[in-house]
From TrEMBL, chain A:
It is found in: Cell inner membrane. Transmembrane segments: none annotated. Keywords: ATP-binding, Cell membrane, Membrane, Nucleotide-binding, Transport. It is a peripheral membrane protein. Residues 318-337 are annotated as: Disordered. Residues 4-254 form the ABC transporter domain. It comes from Thalassospira lohafexi. Belongs to the ABC transporter superfamily. This is Dipeptide ABC transporter ATP-binding protein. InterPro entries: AAA+_ATPase, ABC_Ni/Peptide_Import, ABC_transporter-like_ATP-bd, ABC_transporter-like_CS, Oligopep_ABC_C, P-loop_NTPase. One of its GO terms (cellular component) is plasma membrane. Gene3D superfamilies: P-loop containing nucleotide triphosphate hydrolases (3.40.50.300).
UniProtKB/TrEMBL annotation, chain C:
One of its GO terms (cellular component) is plasma membrane. It is found in: Cell membrane. One of its GO terms (molecular function) is dipeptide transmembrane transporter activity. It is a multi-pass membrane protein. Keywords: Cell membrane, Membrane, Transmembrane, Transmembrane helix, Transport. Residues 96-325 form the ABC transmembrane type-1 domain. The lineage of its organism: Bacteria, Pseudomonadati, Pseudomonadota, Alphaproteobacteria, Rhodospirillales. Belongs to the binding-protein-dependent transport system permease family. SUPFAM superfamilies: MetI-like. This is Peptide ABC transporter permease. InterPro entries: BPD_transp_1_N, MetI-like, MetI-like_sf. The chain crosses the membrane at residues 12-30, 102-124, 145-165, 198-218, 256-277, 307-328.
Length: 337, 310, 336
C-alpha cells in the first residue's frame, strides 16, 4: 500500500453555484522512499493540492476527494485533532519562500522546538539538544550561535535550511516540498536539493517535490506528474516522460528547457498564460495555447486516458516522434498559419 | 515544425478568442463605483448622506417651525408618543419652548456646511502647502513639515480650543480652528504622493517637454494623488462635524440660540435627569451623520485602494 | 537600538521647540492686549500698565521674550495663573494624577475590550460576527463622547441608580491625597468602602473615555490580524500541527500587535482630547476640566501652560511607545 493515496482530489473556491476549480479531480500516490515530482506553471494548482493534503485550505475553499489516505487512514474523515497529530509529525511541508516562512518574532530555536514540543514532548533540555542535532544535520555552520538568531538575521539559503530542519524535526514519513528552491540564488538551489534528497534517502521518506522546474525533477524524481490549470495532464516514470512526452504540453515544457534547446535559434516558449478563474476555455484547457489544437479540442474537454502505459489527458497523444496521433496534419491549427 | 521557433499567431488568436468573454476593462470611475457599491455599509452611508443633504438644503421648507421661535405655553414637552405631549411638537420642545425637530433640521444645515467648508478650506490650503513642500524640497519642505509635525504633537481638539481661545468663541472661528487643525493630514498626504510621483517617467518626460512648475504641480502630478486625498476629505468631514459639535458643547463653537447640535446638547445638559429627549435627539443626529461619512470614507478607501482589489 | 533611540530623539527635539514657539506666540496673537484683558471692564491706569508690562516682560523684543519664556519652561516655570495667582506648574501637578488615573483606566478598558473584538472579527472574517463587531466599532469610532457620557449617566445613574453622577469620591469619605491616584489613596487609607466608592465613580467616565480608543484598537487589530493571517509563517505554524488557538494567540497575535501598539500610543492624544469632554461632564477634577475653566476665564498663562504640558506628555508617550516597538519587534531592535 502506498504511503499517500490521492484519488480524485478537487479543491474549489468561490460560490457554490459558480465555483472555481483550482484542483480538478487529481489522483496520485507516493510510496515510502519514493520521490514524486509535480510539475506545472504558476496557477496550475500544484501548490493548492499540496495544501489540501496538509489540511491548510480555509473556509471559502472546499476540498473533496474520493479518498485521501495516508498510511491507510483517510485524512478527510478523521477528527481535526487526530489529523493535527499527523500533520507536522508524519507529514511535513516545506514552503516556497523561506524568508517569509519563519515567524519574524521568534528565534530559530523557539520555532524548531515548538514542533518538537507539540508532537514529541520531552523536556526543554532534550528538545534543545535535538534542535542542535537538526541544525547540524541540515548543514548549518556554527549551529550553536544560530539557535538564538532571529529570522531577519539569516540569509535565504540559511533560512531554508532552518525551514527544512523544522520540517524534519519529528522524522516525518512524507515530506512535501513546495518550490523549495524558487526563492533562492541559483548557487544555493543545488545545495538545498541535494540536502533534501540526502535526507529523503537516509530516512526512506516519501518526498513530494512540487516545482515548475522540469530540469530539477528530471534529476530528482522517480515519477513525474504534469499539471495544468488544476488538471492532471500527464503522469509516468521520470525517464520515460523525458524520453517521449505524450502530451503536447509536456513536449512544449521540455522544448522550453535551455538544456534542450538545440542550435542557435531563440529559446522556445509557450505563448499565453494558464487560464484563471474568468477565462477558462470551453474545451481542452490547453487549447488556446496548444500548437496542435483543432476544433475538437476547442469544443470538447478530454478525459485522462491510458496511452502506452501512461496517463494522458489529450485527444491526440503524441507518438515517439513527437507527432500527434489520430489527427490528420491538415487539421492542426498550428499548421494553418 | 516550422512554427516552433517563430511564435505563431494562431495560438495568440485562440487566446484572444478565449478572452473575448471577459470584455473590455471598465472606466476607472465605473470600476470604483462597482467596488463601492458592493460594500453594503458604504452604500447605506451614501444614502444617509443624501437624505441629510436633502434635509439640509430644504431645511426652511421641511422644518415645521422657526428653530428659534419660543412657545411660552410649551416648555420641555415630551415627544408625541409620550404622555403629556403637545401634539404640535413631534419630538417635543426644549426648556424655552422651541420645537426640537425644527432645530434638528436646521442643525443639519449647520453641520453639513461646517463639514464641507472646513474640508474645502483645509484641503485646498493643505494641498498647496504639501505639493509645494514635495515639489521644491529643501528648506521649504523642512519648514512646512516641521510645522506640521509640531501641530500633530497636539491633540486636535486641544489645538482647536487653543486657536478658539486666541480668536474668541463663535461658529466662524471654530470652523477656522478645525480647518487649521486638519491641515497637517492633507499636507502630509499630498507631499508623500508628490514625492513618489515626482520620480515617475511621465513627470520627467513632461519636464523635458518644457512644462513649467505650475503645470507640473497642479496639472500633471495632482490628479494622480487625488485618491487618498478624497478618502481623507470624506473622513475629514466627519471629524470636522464631531469637533465642531464638541466645541459647541464646550461653549467655544456656535453660540446660542443657533441650533447647532453640540450647542443644543450643552443647553440640554442640566436636564439629564428629567428630559431625555432634549439630550437624546441632537446626539443621535451627530452620531448618524458622522457614522454615515465614516462609512462612506471607508468604502471609498476600499474602492480606491488598489491593494485591496481582488 | 541606540541609533534608533537617538534618531527618534532627533525627531522629537525640533518638535519640542516648535511647540514652545507655538504656545509662546499664542498670547501675542490674541487680538486684544493681554494686560487690558486681565484688567477686565475696569481698565487700568497708564502707570500701572507700564508696571505690569515690565513685570510680564512685554516691553522687551519678541525674541528676547521667547528665550526668557523658554528658559522658564526648561526650569519648570510656566508662569502664574491670572485667576488663582498660583504657579501653573503647581496646579498642573496637583490635578494631573486624576487625569492619569482616568486615562489609564480608559486605555485599559479600550485594550481589554478592543483587542479581543478585533481578533474575533478577524478570525470570523466575512461572517456575521465580523460584521457585528465591526459595525459596533465603527459606531464607537463615530461616537460624540460628550453625548455618549450623558446617555450613560441618564441610563446608569439617573434611571438605574447604579453609579454616581460626578466627582471622584462620595462626600462621605475624606481621603488625604498622598499619591493623587484615588484608587491607591483609598486603599492606603484603609477606610471601609472608600475604594469601592472611588471605583464606582470611575466606571462611567472610563467607558465614555475608552470608547473611541476601543473602536480604533478593534479596527486596527482586525486589519493587522487579517494581514498577518495571510502570511506564510502562519501556514508553516499550522503545518506543524499546532492547534488553531495556538496559531492565532501565539504566532499571529504577536506579529499583529506590532502596528496595534503604535495605534495604542497614538490614542494618548485622543485620550487627552476626550478627557477634556469627559472631565467636564463628570466634574472630574483633572487637567481637562482645568483647561476648559481657564478658557472660559481667559486665564492665558494657565491655557498656555496646560497645552504645553499636554503636548509634552503626548510627545513623551509617543517616544516611549516607539521604544516599546523596538522591544516587541526584533527587526528594529537589531537595526543599527
Amino acid at each position: 500500500m502506498a504511503l499517500l493515496e490521492v484519488k480524485n482530489l478537487t479543491v474549489e473556491f468561490g460560490s457554490e453555484d459558480k465555483p472555481f476549480r483550482a484542483v480538478d479531480s487529481v489522483s496520485y500516490s507516493v510510496d515510502r522512499g519514493e520521490v514524486l515530482g509535480i510539475v506545472g506553471e504558476s496557477g496550475s494548482g500544484k501548490s493548492v493540492s499540496s495544501l489540501a493534503i496538509m489540511g491548510l485550505i480555509d473556509f471559502p475553499g472546499r476540498v473533496t476527494a474520493d479518498s485521501l489516505t495516508f498510511d491507510g487512514q483517510d485524512l478527510l474523515k478523521m477528527p481535526a485533532k487526530k489529523r493535527r497529530a499527523i500533520t507536522g509529525k508524519d507529514i511535513a511541508m516545506i514552503f516556497q519562500d523561506p524568508m517569509s516562512a519563519l515567524n519574524p518574532c521568534f528565534t530559530v530555536e523557539a520555532q524548531i522546538m515548538e514542533a518538537l514540543k507539540v508532537h514529541e514532548g520531552g523536556n526543554k533540555k532534550q528538545r534543545r539538544e535535538r534542535t542542535l542535532d537538526l541544525l547540524n544535520q541540515v548543514g548549518i555552520p556554527d549551529p550553536k550561535s544560530r539557535m538564538t538568531a532571529y529570522p531577519h538575521q539569516l540569509s535565504g539559503g540559511m533560512s531554508q535550511r532552518i525551514v527544512i530542519a523544522m520540517a524534519i524535526a519529528c522524522q516525518p514519513r512524507l515530506l512535501i516540498a513546495d518550490e523549495p528552491t524558487t526563492a533562492l540564488d541559483v548557487t544555493i538551489q543545488a545545495q538545498i536539493i541535494d540536502l533534501l534528497l540526502k535526507l529523503q534517502d537516509d530516512s526512506d521518506m516519501g518526498l513530494l517535490l512540487i516545482t515548475h522546474d522540469l530540469a530539477l525533477v528530471s534529476e530528482a524524481a522517480n515519477r513525474i506528474q504534469v499539471m495544468y490549470a488544476g488538471q492532471l495532464f500527464e503522469s509516468g516514470p521520470a525517464d520515460s516522460i523525458f524520453a517521449a512526452p505524450r502530451h503536447p504540453y509536456t513536449q512544449a515544457l521540455l522544448e522550453a528547457l535551455p538544456e534542450r534547446s538545440t542550435g542557435n535559434d531563440r529559446l522556445s516558449t509557450i505563448p499565453g498564460v494558464v487560464p484563471g478563474q474568468y477565462d477558462r476555455p470551453k474545451g481542452c484547457l490547453l487549447a488556446p495555447r496548444c500548437r496542435y489544437a483543432n476544433d475538437h479540442c476547442i469544443q470538447d474537454r478530454p478525459e485522462v486516458t491510458d496511452f502506452n502505459g501512461r496517463d494522458v489527458r489529450c485527444f491526440y497523444p503524441l507518438n515517439d516522434q513527437g507527432q500527434p496521433t489520430g489527427q490528420t496534419t491538415g487539421q492542426t491549427a498550428g499548421e494553418t498559419v | 515544425m516550422t512554427s516552433q521557433n517563430t511564435p505563431s499567431t494562431a495560438p495568440q488568436n485562440a487566446v484572444d478568442d478565449a478572452m473575448d468573454t471577459v470584455g473590455k476593462p471598465p472606466s476607472p470611475f465605473i470600476e470604483t463605483w462597482n467596488y463601492f457599491r458592493k460594500n453594503r455599509g458604504a452604500y447605506v452611508g451614501l444614502i444617509v448622506i443624501a437624505i441629510i443633504l436633502f434635509v439640509a438644503a430644504f431645511a426652511t421648507f421641511i422644518a415645521p417651525y422657526d428653530p428659534i421661535l419660543q412657545d411660552r405655553t410649551a416648555f420641555l414637552k415630551p415627544p408625541i408618543w409620550m404622555e403629556g405631549a403637545d401634539p404640535r411638537y413631534i419630538l417635543g420642545t426644549d426648556a424655552v419652548g422651541r420645537d426640537i425637530l425644527s432645530r434638528l433640521i436646521h442643525g443639519a444645515q449647520l453641520s453639513v456646511s461646517i463639514g464641507v467648508f472646513v474640508v474645502i478650506i483645509s484641503m485646498v490650503t493643505g494641498i498647496i502647502l504639501g505639493i509645494t513642500a514635495g515639489y521644491f524640497r529643501g528648506w521649504i519642505e523642512v519648514g512646512i513639515m516641521r510645522l506640521m509635525d509640531t501641530m500633530l504633537a497636539l491633540p486636535s481638539l486641544i489645538m482647536a480650543m487653543a486657536i478658539v481661545a486666541i480668536l474668541g468663541p463663535g461658529l466662524e472661528n471654530a470652523m477656522l480652528a478645525i480647518a487649521i487643525v486638519q491641515l497637517p493630514h492633507y499636507v502630509r498626504l499630498s507631499r508623500a504622493s508628490v514625492v513618489t510621483e515626482l520620480n515617475k517617467e511621465y513627470v520627467i518626460a513632461s519636464q523635458i517637454a518644457g512644462a513649467g512648475h505650475m503645470r507640473q504641480m497642479f496639472i500633471n502630478i495632482l490628479p494622480n494623488c487625488m485618491a487618498p486625498l478624497i478618502v481623507q476629505g470624506t473622513l475629514g468631514i466627519s471629524s470636522a462635524i464631531l469637533d465642531a459639535a464638541a466645541l459647541g458643547f464646550l461653549g467655544l463653537g456656535a453660540q446660542p440660540p443657533l441650533p447647532e447640535w453640540g450647542t443644543m446638547l450643552a443647553e440640554a445638559r442640566e436636564f439629564v435627569g428629567s428630559a431625555w429627549w432634549v439630550i437624546t435627539f441632537p446626539g443621535l443626529c451627530i452620531l448618524v451623520t458622522v457614522l454615515a461619512f465614516n462609512l462612506m470614507g471607508d468604502g471609498l478607501r476600499d474602492a480606491l485602494d488598489p491593494k485591496m482589489k481582488r | 537600538m541606540l541609533g534608533f533611540l537617538l534618531r527618534r530623539l532627533g525627531d522629537v527635539i525640533p518638535t519640542f521647540f516648535g511647540v514652545t514657539i507655538l504656545v509662546f506666540l499664542m498670547i501675542h496673537l490674541i487680538p486684544s492686549d493681554p494686560i487690558q484683558m486681565m484688567a477686565g471692564e475696569r481698565g487700568v491706569d497708564p502707570a500701572r500698565y507700564a508696571e505690569l508690562q515690565k513685570e510680564f516682560g512685554f516691553d522687551k523684543p519678541l525674541v528676547v521674550q521667547y528665550f526668557n519664556y523658554l528658559g522658564g519652561v526648561l526650569q519648570g516655570d510656566l508662569g502664574k495663573s491670572f485667576v488663582t495667582k498660583r504657579p501653573v506648574i503647581e496646579e498642573f501637578t496637583t490635578l494631573f494624577p486624576a487625569t492619569i488615573e482616568l486615562s489609564v483606566m480608559g486605555i485599559l478598558f479600550a485594550i481589554i475590550i478592543g483587542l479581543p473584538l478585533g481578533v474575533i472579527a478577524a478570525i470570523n472574517r466575512g461572517k456575521w460576527l465580523d460584521h457585528l463587531t465591526m459595525s459596533l466599532s465603527l459606531t464607537g469610532y463615530s461616537m460624540p463622547i460628550f453625548w455618549w457620557a450623558l446617555l450613560l449617566i441618564m441610563f446608569f445613574s439617573t434611571t438605574l441608580g447604579w453609579t454616581p453622577v460626578s466627582g471622584r469620591l462620595s462626600v462621605f469619605y475624606y481621603i488625604e491625597p498622598t499619591t493623587g491616584f484615588m484608587l491607591i489613596d483609598t486603599l492606603l487609607s484603609g477606610e471601609k468602602g472608600a475604594f469601592t466608592s472611588a471605583l464606582s465613580h470611575l466606571i462611567l467616565p472610563t467607558i465614555a473615555l475608552g470608547t473611541i480608543p476601543m473602536a480604533v484598537i478593534a479596527r486596527m487589530t482586525r486589519s493587522s490580524m487579517l494581514e498577518v493571517l495571510g502570511e506564510e509563517y502562519i501556514r508553516v505554524a499550522r503545518a506543524k500541527g499546532l492547534t488553531p488557538m495556538r496559531v492565532i494567540m501565539v504566532h499571529a497575535l504577536r506579529n499583529a500587535l506590532i502596528p496595534v501598539i503604535t495605534v495604542i500610543g497614538l490614542q494618548v492624544g485622543v485620550l487627552f482630547a476626550g478627557a477634556i469632554l469627559t472631565e467636564t461632564i463628570f466634574s472630574w477634577p483633572g487637567i481637562g476640566k482645568w483647561i476648559v475653566e481657564a478658557l472660559n476665564r481667559r486665564d492665558y498663562p494657565t491655557i498656555q501652560g496646560g497645552i504645553l504640558m499636554i503636548a509634552f506628555v503626548v510627545m513623551g508617550v509617543n517616544l516611549f511607545v516607539d521604544l516599546m516597538y523596538g522591544v516587541i519587534n526584533p527587526r528594529i531592535r537589531h537595526k543599527r
